[in-house]
Amino acid sequence: MSIQDQTLTFAAICQVAQLVQQCSRTGNIEQQQLSVLLISVLNTSPENTLAVYGGNNENLALGLQLLVDHLGDKNKQKDPEITRYIISLINLERRLIKNPTALKQLSERIEQIQRQLAHYDLTSEPILASFASIYSDVISPLGTRIQVAGDPAILKQPHNQHKIRALLLAGIRSAVLWRQVGGKRRNILFHRKKIIHCAEQYLTYLN
Q1: For the chain, how many helices (H) and strands (E)?
Q2: What is the dihedral of CA 123, 100, 180, 192, to 10 degrees?
Q3: Residue 91, pLDDT score
Q4: Best CA proximity match to 62, nearest among 128, 141, 6, 8
Q5: Does pTM surpass 0.90?
Q6: Which of 53, 125, 150, 193 has the highest Cβ tally under 10 A?
Q7: Percentage of the chain modeled with pLDDT above 70
Q8: Can you say whether the dihedral through the CA atoms of 72, 73, 75, 78 is positive or negative?
Q9: Superfamily of chain region 3-206
Q10: All structural domains of the chain with their residue ranges
Q11: Mean pLDDT score of the chain
């Protein structure tokens, strides 16, 4: 599988980690960034990897930049919280793939959301709550819960809880894709320079 596809899908996992952190601290994330990741969960039969994220590299610019900053040598200050989210998502995805019952439930629940979209907008509260409940009911019980750090007052608000869980579900979707295109944890070690170079090329093209 191509290093380009591995870079894009890993950037998407990084983007989820960044947005979870941002939402937990401020309660605010860009609607468009949220939409891209929610659509990625629903797009289960894409033409290609980029199509999952709206067919546009720009939709993953935040994650590509984080990937370069986090894996590269230029920035010595790595954020351990971001690292924890990324590792936790990859670990949960591995447990999901080994659980046929959970995979079946996941597929059925995603179909339910696709039907709901006839009545509600993608980022409306009922849809966000549905994404969040899939994460809570199907993904979270599979392994160690992801402890989200942030402002307690913000984390108490149901709307923010729904957004964060919906984002984590999108992170699982990207972790599944990453594995499908050949992504492995050892790749991050052994192909780190190739992945960083590929992400930098994407960013140069965008700029």
Answers
A1: 11, 0
A2: 90
A3: 94
A4: 8
A5: yes
A6: 53
A7: 99
A8: positive
A9: HflD-like (1.10.3890.10)
A10: 3-206
A11: 93
